[in-house]
Amino acid sequence: MSFLTLGFFTGLSLILAIGAQNIFVIEQGLKKQYIFLVCLICSISDLFLIFVGIFLFHYFSQFFNSIVELIFNVLLLIFLFHFIYTKIKAFKKNESIDFNENIKNISAISIFLKTLAFTYLNPHVYSDTVFFLGNFSKNFSMVQKLNFGIGASIASFLFFFTIGYLSKFLSKYLISEKIWKIINLFIIIFMSLLSIYILADILLY
Question: How far apart are CA 144 and CA 152, in angstroms?
């Protein structure tokens, strides 16, 4: 197996786990809101973090201690509380999943910042892309590291753009208020469970 292939399947296996970032990408695809921008930010962020981990793992691992992780967890928890609050308001308003008419009223900057928050405030992004891949590839040669990183990055690009645009395709079958309420409820429950998990992490620190 080539190191590019190894990187691809290793990266794909890490990113397939359902997380807040993936749910957000799927939601934007269903809403047809700035899908390309969201997928591009997530993919480029992964590429950046993957190569930070592969080439600078030993240096950065000295600074990512438990205190830094605690700060990220607190910031993520605050962000998730706000996000859940907006989802509850949307759930009560019975919003339809078809947001084509309202997309112009939503700022690209707002979506840009929200995508960055879901990406960089999540400690698991660093544990997966930076520390796991960095540690896994620490004994590779420079060429092997490069191929491994390219493979993992390709997996990220493929994954995010697939779930983003697949969600957009499926959105035409999910235009009823009832289905959108179910989707919104799922997001509220999932994010709430994630918040409880993060809160438990903070309390056990």
Answer: 12
